[in-house]
Amino acid sequence: MVKQINWNKIKQNKPAIFDWLVFLLSFSMGFIFPSLKSFVVSSAFSNWMLAALVLYIGGIYLKHRPLYYRLARSGNKEEIPYRFFLIIGHWVIMFAVVIFAEQAFRRVTGLPGLRPGDGSGFGTVIGIFLAAFITWLAFRPGGKSKKIFSEKYLFRRELVADVFLISGVAMLSFVFWEKSIFAVFMNMPMGSVGDVCMRFILLSLAYVMFYLPLRYLYLIEDHFSRQAWRRLMLIFILILLRGLFAALNF
Q1: For the chain, which terminal residue's Cβ has fewer other Cβ atoms within 10 angstroms, N or C?
Q2: Residue 165 contacts residue 57 (beta carbons within 8 Å)
Q3: Is 179 strand, coil or helix?
Q4: Which stretches of 43-128 are assigned E, i.e. beta strand?
């Protein structure tokens, strides 16, 4: 009975655990790579992007079956009304990650490396299709499975998936949000109250368009939860406060 209760608590708190760990890990990476410019020009940048991409793909693949199996057994069919916008945002993010990870992919596979000024050897077409495939992998419907799976197998599989997703999304959040989108908006001049309000609105939209697509498999189960949206708002406020303290050199 105790094990069952603990299992239920873990299942109910998975989205919260995901959100907080992604926030903390992304924040912690700032101490390892304080400067985005030096990080991007380093040889490690493409390696990190490839690792994040592999972890993310592995995570969404492993989590898909346990998630939709659970939804099918519970009889819940969660339809997200803004799903189309999440798909677009997800594709844009994946396209950028594929381009950034190309150099590391070439090193791993033994392909000739890219020289400065060569652009992307994959080409726009290949990058588009790879990003589209990864997006399909995350947003594809669950379908109906007649096979019966044990709770232990589903728990272990989803646990590994959650670890992969937290690690991968934290890396992407650090590069795209912490050191790129957020940094750009925080460095914009603030001449009036209207500028501050506009910056807050734009940052909020950017946060939604970046973060929600990457947590789609968690959003399926909690997008109607007020507690989930309050948690996301709290994390966003903490990010703003941290940016404000950094701007004031605290």
Answers
A1: N
A2: no
A3: helix
A4: none
